[in-house]
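[[Per-residue structure]]
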Amino acid sequence: MEYELKKIDVKQNAKVLAAVALIINLFISVFGFITLVFGIQTTVSFDYIISISVQGLVWKIGLLLLSPILMFILAYLSFAVVFLLYNYVVKYTGGLKLHLVNADNDA
């Protein structure tokens, strides 16, 4: 069956994708903490829409703690903008067309 995606729920989908970005960033932060615990010289920076780089152990720890929150907020905003634009453009161009197949019948 072929379906056309006419509208995206902006808040819900932006929240879900921002949560995924937050989880990925949490893993990255954990690896950052591990490198700091073992005394490995590492650069800690946040580069998504805005760039933040810090020096010094306290600042590095602070940025590693803050980066998942920053990632969630900025990812939510950027996905929301994309979905709002999609909802606007789809009125004039038509939506994404999806060809869906029932997995039980396909086997």
Remarks:
- The radius of gyration is 20 Å.
- DSSP finds three helices and four strands in the chain.
- The mean pLDDT is 92.
- The first strand starts at residue 2 and ends at 5.
